[in-house]
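Bug #2210: token dump truncated for Carbohydrate kinase PfkB domain-containing protein?
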Amino acid sequence: MIRLSGLAFISLPTPNTREFLFYRNPSADTRLDLKEFDNDFIENTKVFHFGSITLINEPSKSSTLKAVKIAKDAGAVISYDPNLRLKLWPNAKTAKKEINATLPLADVVKVNDEELFFLTGKDDVKKAMDEILFKGPGLCLVTQGEKGCYYKTNNYFGKFNAYKVDAVDSSGCGDSFVSSILVKIIDNDFKKIILNKDIMLSTIKFASGAAAITSTKKGVISSLPNKNEVEKFLYNK
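Reproduced locally. Full output below:
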């Protein structure tokens, strides 16, 4: 069956401000069918990452949740970036309910500061992160753009300031950050990371470096750095 790709248009009033316009539904991402999945591939993955956008419409919602279950049952680390786009949801109440309901599925949750407040209603970052962790995840990450990020487990809490760069486009920085976290989770044991603050800090530095590089280029996929680029960037810091 031929399905059209959804489109996302991004405008940049300033390097750190983005506005989105979506053209989708029905589109391929809303018609995700579990029958098209490679279950063996999912069962053998070390990390499974998902977002909330595929939870908005059926059959993608059921298919996504089933894939998460397959991966989790097989022992994969489950990573969740809600990536809130309210314009795609029927209303804010539904978005909040559905996203909060799926937080217990995750081992790692990455949100930005606006999403954290939306989901918890708390201004205090530490208390809000505690609420996320109370639902089941082992690691909560909160990105704040040029202000840096917070990271919290049940064992420690930390803040890391962003690297100073000449940013031109913040699109993709969150993706760059969380994907770099996942690279380090694959390279190391997840339990070691959440138990050892020093290993976590090293992981955060790597992810922050990747996000910083991404912000210096326009675009999303084309701006994502490879591992060597990140290591070179950090070496010079």
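Output looks complete on our side. Residues 197-215 form the longest helix (19 residues). Marking as cannot-reproduce; reopen if the truncation happens again.
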